[in-house]
Amino acid sequence: MGKILIKNCAFLSTMNREREELKDIDLFISNGKIKEIGRNIAKDGKLQVIDASHCIVTPGLINTHDHLFQSLSKTVPKAQNASLFNWLKILYPIWGRMNPEQIFIATQLGLSELALSGCSLSADHMYIFQNGCRLEDTIEAAREIGLRFNPTRGAMSVGESAGGLPPDNLIENEEKILADMERVVQKFNDPAEGSMLRVGLAPCSPFSVSNDLMRETAQLARSLGVGLHTHLAENDEDVKFSLEKYGCTPGEYIQELGWVGPDVWHAHCVKLTPKEIEIFNDTATGIAHCPCSNCRLGSGIAPITDMLKVGINIGLGVDGAASSDSSHLLSEARQAMLLQRLTDEGKKFSARDALEIATIGGARVLGRNDLGSIEIGKRADIAIWNLKELSLTGAWDPVASLIFTGPHHVKNLIVEGKLIVNDGELLSIDSQSIIRKAKKSLEQLMESAN
Ligand code: ZN
Fold first, then answer.
1. 321 CA → ligand 1 middle, Å
2. Which pLDDT value is given to residue 206?
3. Each residue of 261-307: pLDDT tens digit?
4. How far apart (Å, rounded) are the C-alpha atoms in residues 49 and 432?
5. Does pLDDT of 1 surpass 70?
6. Residues linked to residue 34 through DSSP beta bridges, in sequence order
7. Residue 200 Cα, ligand 1 centroid: separation in angstroms?
8. pTM tops 0.85, yes or no
9. Which pairing describes strands 418-422 and 412-415: parallel, antiparallel, or unpaired?
10. Ligand 1: centre distance to CA 53 (Å)
11. Which of 251, 252, 215 is nearest to 233 (CA)?
12. Nearest residue to 405 via CA among 56, 121, 71
């Protein structure tokens, strides 16, 4: 594996425990790890040298919630102004028609956008498995792009006729779901330090799976030593469904099912009550905060300032492109900061708070203590941002300006010590060919909708 020397970083935000920021500093990477941080580091032999004298250097950003298959369903007209349940009902049939090739190209499209926005590790939540689609379609797509990947095997098992939200033709048999969950973990999950691929288990939501499947998935995940993920308390409809069907709030519901603990992270949690926040805190359960999606669907403002205050692990997620229309993780961090400012508690939610949930916060949520900050011994996932941009010019505080101004694209992205983006271009794959293939898949999907 190669060696990279990043010379003269104008500003380096470590995101270590003290949020230390360094100036005019070098960074040496070897064998996928951060080996040295200091002034005037000199190295002989074969290595790549990057001049960062006009750059801000941060840890690679971490995306804790996404549905990459949705990258081909941005701005679907009927779904543009819908709230969660109606939005899902409009989109389920479109997603249900996707084939493996379309899932593959949608995943590459989403991951490419993420890479160019500084993301080095993305989670994914695929939950519709029709027409021969498998988790493999996303895993193979991610391998080609070169990002670290944390796909989760999702599922829907309760259709409309049984009181669920999805149409009956999109649900799967629960025995088959559990068997496939076990198969993909055995086949792909790599628990080692520095892993490029970890697999989690993720029944879709309380309104599309049964209690039994939730319980059995938790048991299976724990026997296999992998993470658990689902959607929770996303909006008022979601809470109402839980109260009417289960007689308790979403937080109480998941506690009862064993879906709490440091190995579990829930997406959204917009409507958690103080009592539910206590449950999350007592059990070290993580949260994926998705502010753009929450705004787009009018779901509400997640009380993340309160949650961070008590010490809950919070990461950031772009959610699927059908509800955020974008996979720009740095921009998502900006949205998180701006949205908190609308709450009484979040008036002082800072740019550095936003950068923290986008980096080390996400690493904690995904159980990755080898990632999320720039420290000696951690894996070398690094984002380098060019200060010589019009929008970053005029800023008094360059690190804060990454979040306040923008959105910006990354200049260089390093994942596991390997350059994935150079001078704002993807190295691993031709982005023009992704655009061509994605356009073709989009046309097919649109035709099949007529
Ligand atoms: Zn989601």
1. 10
2. 86
3. 999 999 999 999 999 999 999 999 999 999 999 999 999 999 999 99
4. 27
5. no
6. 29
7. 15
8. yes
9. antiparallel
10. 39
11. 251
12. 56
Q: Cα(271) to centroid of ligand 1, in Å?
A: 15
**Distance from Cα 152 to the centre of ligand 1, integer Å:** 12
Average pLDDT estimate for 77-101: 96
Q: What is the pLDDT of residues 393-418, one digit of tens each?
A: 999 999 999 999 989 999 999 999 99
DSSP letters spanning 315-333: EE----HHHHS---HHHHH
The share of the chain scoring above pLDDT 70, in percent, equals 100
How remote is the CA of residue 194 from the centroid of ligand 1, in Å? 26
Task: Report phi then psi at 352, rounded to 5.
Answer: -70, -30
DSSP 314: E
Q: Which of 353, 367, 370 is closest to 404 using CA atoms?
A: 353
CA 137 to ligand 1 centroid distance, Å: 19
CB 374 within 8 A of CB 12: yes
State the sign of the Cα–Cα–Cα–Cα dihedral 70, 74, 78, 84.
positive
Contact 104, 112 (CB under 8 A): no
Residue at 289: amino acid letter:
H
| C-alpha 33 – ligand 1 centre gap (Å) | 32
Please give the distance, rounded to the nearest whole angstrom, from the Cα atom of residue 393 to the centre of ligand 1.
Answer: 35
How high does pLDDT run on average in the chain?
A: 97
287 has which bridge partners? 266, 314
- Which residues are placed with Cβ below 5 angstroms of ligand 1, an ion? 319
Taking the centre of ligand 1 as the mean of its atom positions, its distance from the CA of residue 18, in whole angstroms, is 32
Q: How far is the CA of 66 from the centre of ligand 1 (A)?
A: 6
> What H or E segment, with its residue span, contains residue 9?
strand 3-13
